[in-house]
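Recall the central idea of this unit: under ordinary conditions, the amino acid sequence of a chain determines the structure it adopts. In this exercise we apply that idea directly, starting from the sequence alone.
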Amino acid sequence: MFGTASVVAGVSGAIFTTLPDGTAVNHNIYDNCADVYLNGGPQNGHCDDPSAGLSPNGDYYFQVTTPGGQVLLSTDDISNRKVTVSGGLIVGTDGTHLTGTAQCPLAITVQLMPFNSTPNPGGEYKVWMTPVDSYGLNGIDVDHNFGFDNSATKTDNFKCGDHLVPCATVDSVDKFVCIACSSDVKVPCTDLNATTVVVLYDAPTVTGAADPTVICSPASGSSFTAGVTTTVTCTVTDVFGDDTCSLKVEVATCPSCALTCPASITNCTDVGTCTFVYGFLPLSCPDAPGVAITCTNQSGTVVDPSFAFPLGKTTVTCTASDPAVTGSPCSFTVTVKDCVGPTITCPPASFDLGCNPTLPDCALAKTKVSGVSDICDPSPTLECVAGAVQSGTGCTRSQIFDVTAKDASGNLSDTCHVTFTWTADNNPPAIYVSGCQECPMRDLHAGYDRHDN
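Accordingly, the structure predicted from this sequence is:
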């Protein structure tokens, strides 16, 4: 990984890049390539720690390549790139490379220049160090790391700014740090009634930066508003420059469903029945066809638009199968009233009770009607109002009784006018005798004729 010296079997300890005075350990990023020096082994405060020293002691070669090792960038001969390790420290060099003073006694630092600029857009390099005795054992071509055997080699990566390759040119000005965002993103929304969707998008690509800090806002993994296109802006900041890019995140509108129950209603029974069919519109979620909505009454019976509601008040509760549906559960009431009275068949004519009968009453009048029935009440009652006795011509009398059927809901039938007639004789008998218009009974004698009205 960049900035971390590798540890390979065959050579122990570590090498790293530093400034000429050895004050920076694994500095890795330098303004100028001429400031990059090779160092290794223990550092100040640990100079007597043998476990940190380079091993084995002896002569080593070093080289500078591209970060992947495909191109050799050192320009002088290998013999000029030789250092000596003693006591775990770099203590000498046979070449012409400049040296500095390291932090431990007798230790030196060795300048890595001269080397060519790296083609890497980020200005990144790799330094290698291997024992002279191991150099070239497997060949010195590119396939064999130019003679530096991986099994006996130490490496470290670094960057320097004065040999950067431009990653872009804008308005004739070279840019050494570039950032490229991924393509615009379109994200579906499948969550019912959701208002946001968590969106993951690819990280931008950064080139040319030494130690970049990349910030994207909103960040990948954030919640993006549904039904809205949001612009994501990514910025890279680095010692070699900065740059920005953007992408658009389009989140689709989420399916929605809000449950609204039918209005409560009070209604009379349907014609010819003792029930009422509301016929309300079926409840559904067009945007979410997978959501089922079930309506039941207080007894748990499923209620649909064709349900026949009985007399009285019924409470219906409708519930969606998905708890995300707003307004679920909801309820409404259906109150059914019996608005139709009973039927009754009235007698076709009056009833003559003869002379001096037992006077009629409501009980008698109720027996004269027939066909009393009601759709909702199997046993309607009869009500009766007696009219006044009326006197007719002579001894005739009549009385009308108004008889009405009434059901349990208080509805009345048509009224039957039951009429009774009779003759009332309230005078004593009289005897007619010759020469006597009307003689009392006490004056009766032979030859009389007895007569009564």
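The longest helix spans residues 362-366.
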